[in-house]
Amino acid sequence: MVTSPRPDIIYTKVDEAPELASASLLPIIQRFAAAAGVSVGTKDISLAGRILATFPDFLTEEQRIPDDLAELGELVKTPDANVIKLPNISASVPQLVAAIRELQAKGFALPDYPESPATEDEKKIRARYDTIKGSAVNPVLREGNSDRRAAKAVKAFAQANPHRMGVWSADSKTRVASMSGGDFRSNETSATLDKESTASIVLETANGETVLKDGVSYPAGTVVDATFMSAQALDAFLAAEIEKTKAEGVLFSLHMKATMMKVSDPIIFGHAVKTFLAPVFEAHGEAMAELGVNPNQGLGALLDKVSSNAGITAAIEACMADRPPMYMVNSDKGITNLHVPSDVIIDASMPALIRAGGKGWGPDGKEHDAVCVIPDDSYAPVYDEAINFFKANGKLNPATAGTVQNLGLMAQKAEEYGSHPTTFEIPEDGTVKMVLEDGTVLHEHRVEQGDIWRSASARKAPIEDWVNLAIERQKTTGYRSIFWLDETRAHDAELIAYVKPILDAKGVSDKFEIMAPRDATRASLETITKGENTIAITGNVLRDYLTDLFPILELATSAKMLSIVKLMQGGGLFETGAGGSAPKHVQQLHEENHLRWDSLGEFCALGESLKFLADAKDNARARVLGEAVEDATQGVLDNGRSPSRKVGEPDNRDSHYWFARYWAEALAAQGDDAALAEEFTPIAAALAENETAITNELAAPQGDPADTGGYYTADPAKLASVMRPSATLNEIIG
Ligand SMILES: NC(=O)C1=CN([C@@H]2O[C@H](COP(=O)(O)OP(=O)(O)OC[C@H]3O[C@@H](n4cnc5c(N)ncnc54)[C@H](OP(=O)(O)O)[C@@H]3O)[C@@H](O)[C@H]2O)C=CC1
Ligand SMILES: O=C(O)CCC(=O)C(=O)O
Ligand SMILES: [Mg+2]
């Protein structure tokens, strides 16, 4: 067998809008890179690809595909990694089930997703599917800490062309509601291990001891936390907030991260569904269970399951009529906040609401104030404080606002985002103990049935790397630098015990502040309001939340962010933007053949990846290509070539034409590499001469429905015909 050498750069195959965009952009990238002898290959980390790679035994020989994620997971632990990572779906159960159905309909004999596995076989299949569920890709690839910021050109562009911001009024009724006790924040205990150890997690009850998890192992210096959310406290809180929301006459909304927190958050979401429909569950609970209802999968799946039972559907209608109106995902289609656990994802949803002046869409298709329920109080204060700030000071002005950069502790499954293997819904009242190999009981909690107990950890090497990255960034920029750590929270206190000595040892303690998330939010908003800049040095969850929140306020979207993961073994992972895969954009393309996805994140990542290749492999031509990418990106911004949101106006494909043109022009104009200049001079000329033909050909198909041959997996020929409709451009690109 001949194995081809690994490509210089790996570009990931993903899902939804970014994958549609890749069908148009990647051929351009591959053509331009090839001219400089740089190879760009692909690896499939899409949801559909992950499913097929996990079930080879159900597929024919021809249908089988390799496990690209496993391969990439190894690659990122080597200095050779140079990966451009686009956003991919982190699937909730309804999305996973839909993807399986689509693949089955295409002739892949995959097993159904066993919703309530009974036999051993079903349990095994369920366990295999569960490895694909939720955020199954990012934690595998993120072997480094996170550096997210707006490139200078991008920030300057946003200041010169400020986007529309919703108006905040001082009497807005919008507010954040979170628990005042019984939540993860208040039950947390934390300890730093002085030596390496394995640990087991056991539940002791009146009926004996159950091992929940055995053999977890931690290197010396790991910060290990444990905590739980009380189910009773959660239900009481949700019931009270539903009543209060109704009295306040605003929308009820719930903001969770059911994708990355794939074990805990769907359960919390299920509590909200059950509490919202409490009278229905009281009257018809047994019948609903018999119909296979699982509230954790949302109201959408619930309504499907009970659709044939008129008694239950009538009870649901009556109950909903008596509840506060719900914040809607799609009011035209009647899709509520509680329909699908992954429709409303806190990092994107809260900033969108804050940017809109505290407004969400109601069932009447109009904007209203909303109560934003975020049960756990660990990070809710960030949004609460932001809302208070804008109520008091009015909306942010993107024309004059400074920027908040982020350095996030992320490597090696840091903190809550790595906690799903050690998260449990407690089956019976008792005591959970986390016991080290020498018998030490590290953590101990009294729990009740239904409580959600979890342990999270952060390792020493990533923590030290993160503090050092912060020191470097502060030195390079001189910006106000804040560690978002709360000395009164157990986990944060352990981190502070790492941070302070390192800052002291390096003699830079006076350059850094340490503040609890609420205070840091206020300080950061005050700083950027003055037009100054700040660095938010945060844990993993706030990395995620803040790199949507501030970009959405400053730049209108997090899609334009530079998002670099400095892999701890020396490689580079270049994420594109800080947002997701924009399902709404796919819907628009399918309905009216307009793709509003902005590939600026891809452009920025490509430039960084080429420059990294130049440095790592001493590849001068890669540097020329990378510098030309920066010129091209600047060209797209300066000349307003980003996609429009509206059908009939230039879209994603048009912006790629301009990117290719500016890239070719920059390569033709540069003097560092004569051969490249010579090769790209005629290409640049052809792209310019044929501008009218190309832009007309790109615009022509807009308005009619587009068929890409599938949602989770496209038909390559159909996809190419939709995304590359200009024969003239295709001919020039070759
Ligand atoms: N790195 C990753 O792999 C990530 C993956 N995800 C996954 O993405 C999916 C959707 O997540 P969701 O929370 O809805 O967030 P998204 O970021 O996908 O969408 C929120 C909104 O942001 C805007 N947006 C995002 N990216 C772009 C872009 N490139 N160009 C223009 N607008 C953009 C769109 O606004 P508008 O509709 O107004 O145009 C979009 O509807 C989920 O499956 C989630 O798990 C989420 C975050 C990161
Ligand atoms: O992995 C995911 O599910 C989402 C990741 C995310 O939101 C982020 O990194 O900003
Ligand atoms: Mg995010």
3D structure, described in words:
The protein has 734 residues and is an alpha/beta fold. Among the domains are: 9-143 and 570-733, no CATH class; 175-182 and 229-380, no CATH class. The chain contains 27 helices and 24 strands. The strands form 5 sheets. Strands 2-1-3-24-23-4-15-22-20-21 form a 10-stranded mixed beta sheet, sandwiched between helices. Strands 5, 10, 13 and 14 form a 4-stranded mixed beta sheet that branches. Strands 6-9-19-16 form a 4-stranded antiparallel beta sheet. Helix 1 packs parallel to helix 23, helix 11 (278-290) runs antiparallel to helix 13 (310-322) and helix 14 runs parallel beside helix 19 (540-555). The two termini are 30 Å apart. The model has no long low-confidence stretch (mean pLDDT 97). Bound molecules: NADPH dihydro-nicotinamide-adenine-dinucleotide phosphate (NDP), 2-oxoglutaric acid (AKG) and magnesium ion (MG). 2-oxoglutaric acid (AKG) binds next to helix 19.
List the defining traits of the structure above.
binds 2-oxoglutaric acid, 4-stranded mixed sheet, 27 helices, single chain, alpha/beta, 46% helix, binds NADPH dihydro-nicotinamide-adenine-dinucleotide phosphate, 734 residues, binds magnesium ion
